[in-house]
Design goal:
Helices cover 44% and strands 13% of the residues. The chain contains 16 helices and eleven strands. The structure holds adenosine monophosphate and magnesium ion. Adenosine monophosphate binds next to loops.
Length: 455
């Protein structure tokens, strides 16, 4: 990663009918040589919707090489040996969503792959209807997935499995060699490290109200990064059972299922690593870390959202009751998740909680909760709490209808909405008065946006 803040590039470049919009990495990386260039597509397998899907692989992604310690990958650049029945392409719609969301997640402090730029062309691509092609150039320290391990393990290719695991340990988890956490078993340590990073990532998702939509094991990063932005959604009204992926009929990846699914996927990774770990008990112990790391991180994040610093003198059971009661109230009243937290933060700053109260149909129930909340917080510094809250409760999240507006404008070759939205999402905790409308409730038509796996 560049050490000094890179200059922000928000302009558009045009080349023979191509247009590109760059993120803040665009300028620093555009002059960087990419080392070790031997473009490649990698093979992986995976579990999709709970079923073993066999071989998948980079069907439309090409790894160009490395720059500044980041792998540079093109998504949607054409056929690869793993394209199977696909065309190797990505459409402008899904590319804009991935581009915006990876940058938005980064700005929210959530571990994620990054986007360098999105490039569009007029080349037609057929999905449910004719669309046009685009390529996202994306960056990550590594794009290795659980599925890479599952692939070699399922085929009994243990030499390759070991080479891959050794590479991950040396390159990304060097402590796993020396640490004695789980005996002197580097592979058990590797599993535990991935378990912990995944748990931290999912806790962030739950706290901010992010629904990934396709948590297949081939979409799970070995570095605990949010990867493969498809039918994702930030919650509008709080609905724990929300299903954002139109193709997910059974709700396997519903919002409140995400922690359990992540844990399930980690079992898949553990199974794949077992020939190297050679000790089922150690693997189970590593997996057992999930719950405690997840619970602790979620609790920490939710308390911060309430303006309660770690050292505040409120016992854990009481904090927990406060959070659980609140989430139940938000669900019963179908309260907009992001707007609630932002209004609560402002309420804390001003002492006026009326705008928060307005969000609830059942005002007496809210008043009861509010009384409990105020009592617990009576002795904390209100200004400090408000400050904490305004830095963790974003004003702007990439709601579906905002992405949709940027997409529709871009389809008509107007990239200003996209550039503006990117700029706002890069600073989601700040006020952007000209764009207040983007922090408001979703319009009625947002309910009709249907996002499937098609991309
Ligand atoms: P996803 O649902 O995007 O994670 O994709 C699942 C698998 O399908 C991955 O192996 C992708 O590379 C592959 N895939 C998705 N779309 C295409 C496409 N248009 N062409 C080729 N492969 C694709
Ligand atoms: Mg994928």
């Amino acid at each position: 990663m560049p050490t000094s803040a890179p200059p922000v590039h928000t302009g558009l470049t045009w080349h023979n009918g191509f247009h590109a919009l760059g993120s803040d990495y665009f300028t620093p990386l555009s002059n960087q040589p990419i080392s070790g260039t031997q473009p490649l597509a990698s093979v992986y397998s995976g579990h999709q919707f709970g079923q073993w899907a066999g071989q998948l692989g980079d069907g439309r992604a090409i790894l160009l090489g490395e720059a500044n310690g980041l792998e540079v990958q093109l998504k949607g650049s054409g056929l690869t040996p793993y394209s199977r029945m696909g065309d190797g392409r990505a459409v402008l719609r899904s590319s804009i969503r991935e581009f915006l969301c990876s940058e938005a997640m980064h700005a929210l402090g959530i571990p994620t792959t990054r986007a360098l730029c999105v490039t569009g062309s007029d080349d037609p691509v057929w999905r449910e209807e004719p669309e046009t092609a685009a390529v996202v150039t994306r960056l990550a320290p590594s794009f290795i997935r659980f599925g890479h391990f599952e692939h070699f393990s399922a085929r009994g290719q243990l030499t390759q499995l070991k080479t891959l695991a050794d590479y991950c340990v040396e390159r990304y988890y060097p402590d796993c060699r020396s640490a004695q956490t789980l005996a002197a078993n580097a592979y058990a340590n590797l599993l535990q490290a991935v378990v912990e990073r995944t748990a931290l990532m999912v806790a962030h998702w739950q706290a901010v109200g992010f629904c990934h939509g396709v948590m297949n094991t081939d979409n799970m990063s070995i570095l605990g990064l949010t990867i493969d932005y498809g039918p994702f959604q930030f919650l509008d009204a709080y609905d724990p059972g929300h299903i954002c992926n139109h193709s997910d009929r059974g709700g396997r990846y519903a919002f409140d299922q995400q922690p359990a699914v992540a844990h399930w996927n980690l079992y898949g990774l553990a199974q794949a690593l077992l020939p190297l770990i050679e000790d089922e008990q150690l693997a189970l112990r590593a997996l057992g870390r999930f719950e405690s790391v997840y619970e602790r991180q979620l609790h920490r994040l939710m308390c911060a959202k309430l303006g309660l610093p770690d050292h505040a003198d409120v016992p854990r059971p009481e904090r927990q009751t406060l959070i659980q009661d609140l989430l139940a109230l938000l669900a019963q009243n179908q309260v907009d998740y992001s707007i609630f937290w932002r209004r609560l933060s402002h309420g804390r700053a001003s002492g006026d909680f009326e705008p928060v109260r307005d969000l609830f149909l059942d005002r007496p129930a809210f008043d009861t909760w509010m009384l409990y909340f105020s009592e617990l917080f009576a002795h904390t510094d209100q200004a400090l709490a408000a400050d904490l809250m305004l830095k963790i409760n974003p004003k702007y999240v990439l709601r579906n209808h905002l992405g949709e507006q940027a997409i529709q404008a871009a389809k008509a070759k107007d990239f200003q909405v996209l550039a503006d939205l990117l700029r706002v999402l890069q600073h989601p905790f700040e006020e952007h008065p000209a764009f207040d409308a983007w922090a408001s409730f979703p319009p009625e038509w947002a309910k009709r946006i249907s996002i499937s796996c098609s991309s």
